[in-house]
Design goal:
Blueprint lengths: L2 E7 L4 H9 L4 E3 L2 E3 L8 E3 L4 E6 L6 H5 L4 E4 L1 E2 L2 E2 L1 E2 L1 H21 L6 E4 L8 E7 L5 E8 L2 E8 L3 E3 L8
Antiparallel strand pairs: 1-5, 1-6, 1-9, 2-5, 3-4, 7-8, 10-11, 10-14, 11-12, 12-13
């Protein structure tokens, strides 16, 4: 029966499998999300080493999918690949799109005007510099007593502000 199935795959094989199986008309889906702290906002798999495939296990395409380079095994139920409801795939697509759209729209860029919204620097204004490798922190220049001071702070405590309201 044509349905979505989930497989355990080798690390970082999502793109290879999507490309390979598209040649056989097999749908492949690996939900990816963009983390704000990632350099360049590179999408990362929501479920690393797992991927969804739209295939019929009774079809002639099944052996190609089952033994595709990078697929380890399909998650079973009662000894057979367990079908995944289309509604779950639709939900994952919708939610990852919403997440990524909101991440991109709220992502700060070097030189953006910001205000601190919590912690000891609450309500101080500054200039965004960069996201830190720790993914949840960023570096900003704060306007402290008329002088810009470099500070590393939680990204959740920084909000962009319109350029016109920045006090320098």
């Amino acid at each position: 029966m044509q349905s979505w199935y989930i497989a355990k795959i080798n690390v970082q094989k999502e793109t290879v499998l999507e490309t390979f199986l598209s040649n056989y008309g097999v749908g492949a889906f690996s939900p990816k999300i963009i983390y704000l702290g990632q350099k360049g906002g590179t999408p990362k798999p929501l479920f690393p080493t797992y991927m969804f495939f739209d295939v019929d296990p009774e079809s002639s395409t099944w052996p190609i999918v089952r033994w595709a380079p990078g697929i380890m095994y399909f998650l079973p139920r009662d000894g057979y690949p367990a079908p995944i409801p289309q509604a779950l795939i639709d939900f994952l697509r919708q939610r990852t799109t919403q997440w990524n759209d909101s991440s991109n729209s709220s992502r700060l860029r070097k030189g953006d005007k910001v205000v601190v919204t919590g912690g000891p620097f609450d309500r101080l204004e500054g200039i965004f510099q960069s996201y830190m490798p720790s993914k949840d922190r960023c570096r900003i220049l704060l306007d402290v007593v008329g002088q810009l001071t470099r500070v590393e702070i939680s990204g959740s405590e920084v909000k962009g502000i319109p350029s016109a309201s920045f006090k320098s």
